[in-house]
């Protein structure tokens, strides 16, 4: 597939929508002029107009002028947005991508048209630096459109296609998960202060060590335990520290936190 030749509307251009737009342009997927960014307060987008993006406060008009529609508002704003654009949706032409957590493809098709192709995407905040872990799912979209959406989100990180019933689980592991790993890094840096480093030094050391651990797994395509075995010598200091953490519930607390996050994520949209 070469450069995408259609037009893209990103409705509700907050952090995720804007990060996606920047990624698509940076990767040469589309020129800025092929993307329309919408927001209720247009003044927030004037900087993007100067960069060549189309900007609009009229969601229906943006939809009518585009081929791919990205619904990038919060779940509680989604129903209102869908009411605004339902009249402008062309079932044969449009592909809809929703990043609203907890809202099924079926719920969107119910409002916008039963035959519409809807693909859900769940990125995380690392999308801002092109390092998102994005999960995509659909209920009856074509393989071509799923491949195209995958390609779009690969401009801002890694993508995994999953079954739609796992989307709330993906929210917990990937979207909430950013916070869990950040808290782990924060705790390690606090440990560093207690053993003698200044706070800024300890944080830098913890951050780079965490990044090194993640990159080791990505680049070596190895398993965490394989890499742990290389650091744990008999009667050594690493295994002593690891076992102390495990006695205090290190792994089990992370597992339990992820399970609870998944339960909460499943109830976000239904509560509105």
From TrEMBL:
A single GO CC term for this protein reads: cytoplasm
Q: What is its main location?
A: cytoplasm
Record's subcellular location: Cytoplasm
List positions binding NADP(+): 72-75
The GO molecular function terms of this record are:
pyrroline-5-carboxylate reductase activity
- Does this entry carry the keyword Oxidoreductase? yes
Read off the InterPro entries from this record: 6-PGluconate_DH-like_C_sf (IPR008927), NAD(P)-bd_dom_sf (IPR036291), P5C_Rdtase_cat_N (IPR028939), P5CR_dimer (IPR029036), Pyrroline-COOH_reductase (IPR000304)
| Annotated Pyrroline-5-carboxylate reductase catalytic N-terminal domain residues | 7-102
- Pathway(s) the chain acts in: Amino-acid biosynthesis; L-proline biosynthesis; L-proline from L-glutamate 5-semialdehyde: step 1/1
A Pfam family (short name) is F420_oxidored
Catalysed reaction equations from the record: L-proline + NADP(+) = (S)-1-pyrroline-5-carboxylate + NADPH + 2 H(+); L-proline + NAD(+) = (S)-1-pyrroline-5-carboxylate + NADH + 2 H(+)
Family to which the UniProt record says this protein belongs: Belongs to the pyrroline-5-carboxylate reductase family.
Specify the protein name.
Pyrroline-5-carboxylate reductase
Organism of this sequence: Pedobacter cryoconitis
- Name the gene: proC
């Amino acid at each position: 597939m070469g450069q995408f030749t259609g037009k893209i509307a990103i409705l509700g251009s907050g952090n995720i929508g804007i990060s996606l737009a920047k990624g698509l342009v940076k990767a040469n997927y589309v020129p800025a002029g092929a993307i329309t960014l919408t927001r209720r307060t247009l003044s927030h987008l004037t900087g993007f107009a100067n960069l060549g993006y189309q900007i609009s406060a009229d969601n229906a008009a943006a939809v009518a002028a585009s081929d791919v529609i990205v619904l990038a508002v919060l779940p509680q704003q989604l129903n209102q947005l869908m009411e605004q654009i339902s009249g402008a949706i062309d079932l044969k032409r449009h592909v809809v991508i929703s990043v609203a957590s907890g809202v099924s493809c079926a719920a969107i098709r119910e409002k916008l048209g039963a035959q519409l192709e809807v693909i859900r995407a769940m990125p995380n905040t690392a999308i801002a630096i092109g390092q998102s872990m994005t999960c995509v799912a659909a209920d009856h979209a074509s393989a071509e459109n799923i491949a195209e959406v995958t390609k779009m989100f690969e401009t801002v990180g890694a993508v995994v296609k999953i079954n739609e019933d796992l989307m709330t689980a993906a929210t917990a592991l990937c979207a909430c998960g950013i916070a869990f790993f950040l808290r782990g890094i924060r705790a390690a840096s606090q440990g560093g202060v207690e053993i003698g480093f200044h706070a800024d030094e300890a944080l830098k050391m913890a951050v780079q060590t965490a990044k090194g651990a993640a990159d080791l797994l990505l680049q070596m395509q190895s398993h965490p335990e394989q890499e742990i075995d290389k650091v744990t010598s008999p009667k050594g200091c690493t295994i002593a520290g690891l076992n102390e953490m495990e006695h205090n519930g290190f792994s089990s607390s992370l597992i339990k936190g992820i399970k609870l996050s998944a339960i909460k994520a499943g109830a976000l949209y239904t509560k509105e």
